[in-house]
Amino acid sequence: MFESMVSGIGQILTVSHLLYMCLGVSVGLLVGIIPGLGGIAGMALLLPFLYGMDPGLALGMLMGMVAVIPTGDTFASVLMGIPGSSSSQATVMDGFPLAKKGQAARALSSAFLSSLCGGVIGALILTIFILMARPLVLGFSSSELFVLTMLGLAMVAVLSGGQLFKGIAACGLGLLVGAMGTAPATGEFRLNMGIEYLFDGIPLVVVGLGIFAIPEIIELMIQKSSIARDQAGLGKGWKRGVLDVWQNRGLVARCAGIGSIIGTIPGLAGSVVDWLTYGYASRTVKGEKHFGQGDIRGVIAPESANNACACGAMVPTLLFGVPGSGTAAIFLGGLLLLGLEPGVSMITTHLDLTYNIIWSLALANILGAAFCLMLARPVAQLTRVPFALIAPVITMLVLFAAYQATRSLGDWYSLIAIGAIGLMFKQAGWSRPAFLIGFVLAPGAETYFYQSIQFNGLAGFMRPGVLIILSITALALLYPLGRKLLARRRNTASDKTAATTVVEKTQATWGVVDMILVVGMLLVAALSWYDVRDISFIAHVFPMLSIVFLGGGALAVAIQIRTEGAIRVEQPALQGLCWLAGLLMVVVVASVLGFVSTAALGSLLFLTFVARAHWLTIVLITLGIVAFLLGMQSLLSLQYPSGLLDGLILPSS
Amino acid sequence: MAFQSSQASETAKTPVPDTLTWTVPFGVGGGTDVWARFMSHWVGESLENHPAIVINNVPGGGSITGANLFYSRARSNGAEMIVTSASTQYPAMLKDPRVRFDYSRWTPIIAAPTGGVVYAQSSMGEDPKKIMEHLRQHETKFGAQTPTGLELPILLAFDMLGLQVDPVFGMRSRGEGRLAFERGEAGIDFQTTSAYFSSVTPLVKSGQAVPLFSLGVMNDDNIIVRDPAFPDLPTFSELYLAQPDTSRDDMAYQVYHKFFASGYALQKLLLVPRDIDASLLATYLDAARKLAKNPEFLEAARQRIGPYDPVTGEVAARQLEAAMQMSQERRQWIVDWLKQRHDIRVVTQ
């Protein structure tokens, strides 16, 4: 084993290896930074090189690409509120508010440094852990996986602040949207309204963009400011960000640990771990908390975890050939192409290759984060630009990203639909993360639940692993309650914990949007019930459960408003909906005329009539957009809706 | 064959396009994608002008979305091809209402067969015979993906041997099914040949798993015979036909045979629209035949895809045509079987 370690180090420190790895890292950063792309696009770029390459070098290159994707996507999360991929969803929660406060540089540098530390810690843990991970991976039966998704769902209670019922309803809606498409147990279709696009359900990228990015874009349009409202000292946060990580080094280490362990569990990984660590941080850190409004620890926690998780995900990929995440699946494809069969041999005969992979991972994390750290300060200046000028760019990026999900026009229309939900949630203070968590965990929760029942029966829920996870879940839910009780007993009114609980207990409010949401949710619940009533039991029991959460939560909100005498507040919805309608128009026009022409035309018109920019700026931005779209198209052989106009103007590719 | 090559040399050859686009209706990194990428290298090499081959992944609907799209949009200029697998063939045979493509309008260039092995926990008995006996009497779990996917003939095979196997659906890959077996949740499992060699052989060596039977391979007369990769293992067909009152003419066996033919004997297919230029098609078929004899390719293919030689041109076309023709009666039979045996409702057109 020691020999393999040494030879692994020897392999990765050769010049050729480092060169190929830098190539991999640059590709990974490129596809990571551009929202909506990811490992798949990166793979397409690297593949032509891969065939026939020396496996050691090729692994370094692949690993370089795979490792830095969760680093690069932080730019879009922090600067534009766009969750670039599933691993950066929780980063949006506090990263974007920080950018709005004018602290983008601080958020970015913290994020990159945490990513670096997380990645390196993850790789270190993996070095030892890979040798004994088999029993752990095998120890996780479907029952443990199911209760782990429950632990994820419990985060809803943590993240919905004081508004528990709204959180439950939002989560129920997320679960229901996640259940659209095909029932995993029987292959029966459900909740798809006969629309072919919905047979596979709505892709995660589209939901993430719709629920987070669209409402933010619209809010910024309404306010007509720049992203950073507070512009003083914009570039100065860099050092502070580094300091933040140092001050929270314990948190970084713990989140990296959690990340690398969760990452080893096949089938969950990526999308749960950032919410788990986010929830963990928001519950356990001491001192004043502003989670959701720009708390740097809300960035540090998920960012340290997601790179570590990418390391952990290598365990099931290498040992069992079962990928732990989407990106790991792509890496697995690369392994097979290189003629390497994952399995036990990876820790016996091919141990040196395995260490090559692990340490390439660590090195790639360092290279990637260092590069991003250098970029952080200049790129943060983007938040200074008046939003009207970058609105066309961001809108185009969002549409570009959404369309890469399945390359069907359905991606755009469901983006608008989810965007409408997100917009109303934001205006009325319903938890958007709760919706997203429900959506992300729906397939896992359902599949593992009935697999667990079928494989292990009810006895499955008495397994020691299950009990441990259940008690952690209970602890997560009861922790603040316990703290509250303790605080009350001590009777220290000046205690900061008590202060935050008082804030949570403010009088409930309601408005027009709340009403629309409650009525709409009850309606959706009723219609969904009607839709699934006829399919077989194991295919409809989960949607039914989601409907109970959705309907029950919505009813509870309504009852709360009536009985507790909530204060009526103004919730101006019209302006937001007008902007959304505008976006819908853009999408319709793009479907008919073609994406590239519409992006160019839309940008010209918008910058001229809405932003009233200087003609040179208009021309430069528009040309930039067109160049980006066409460049991506030829580089990655992407396809856009070509429509009537694109086909005429552009050379066919 | 002779006719085709002479025709190709006499008439002016249509040049092979500089760029070929292969639609792969699956995500990056999956089995079919890896096969396509592996093949693209070799097919590109074996064509004279070494065209660039672009892989266009269009995942969705278990490959139906991409196949539909290719069927409706692909031009017959010889530059566009599609790669399909069992998950594309089966819905077409079952007339899934989402299917709008038609295999009779496509013609295969090259196809890859695969075999597979069914194995069980060694805790059920000391030898395959005892284990089979155990399986006949005790209900045993099997981790499967979808009722109408790659495991369909396997489920049928279990039932035809009288094994009390209860499938648990929703596995996202055969690998996950194997993981359930390794965890001890599933008592019986199935893997295709290359996965069996890499991941199950160690389990057999360590004494956890016992192989029960292979699926066999199809010979040129459309009869299933022993798999050269597993010469010592009986095939399912042997076991089934050894039972009293069974024959190859049984409805169940006929249906099994169809699904085996289209899902295993021709598991992965590279197809072009049938109406492309005849001389271009001849060029492609010629390249495929040469490739199938190229020792370098065969060596690499054995390592990465499995120990089976590819099927090309007319043989593949004939086998595919035979496999895809599913009489209404047989289709109804399998639909009824799924409903009665596993309470699965399959919607057909």
TrEMBL record, chain A:
It comes from the Bacteria. InterPro entries: DUF112_TM. PANTHER family: BLR4373 PROTEIN, TRICARBOXYLIC TRANSPORT PROTEIN. Residues 18-436 form the DUF112 domain. Signal peptide: none annotated. This is Tricarboxylate transporter. It comes from Kushneria konosiri. The chain crosses the membrane at residues 18-51, 57-83, 104-131, 137-160, 167-185, 197-218, 318-337, 357-375, 387-406, 435-453, 465-482, 508-529, 535-559, 580-607, 613-632. Keywords: Membrane, Transmembrane, Transmembrane helix.
